[in-house]
Amino acid sequence: MARNKPLPLKRRLGRAHKRTRRAPVWVMAKTMGGVRMSVKRRSWRRQRVKP
To answer: With CB atoms counted within 10 Å of each terminal CB, which end of the chain scores lower, N or C?
Structure first.
């Protein structure tokens, strides 16, 4: 990917980066460890962000 990115692409990448966090601790505690990963979890190797 280019070093200089257009602003819309940079926004999409930033939004996708925020979404890849794990599920909150209180959710894991509430479900007794049943929910460990967030639904929108994504790895940069396995799944690409649409440009």
So the answer is: N
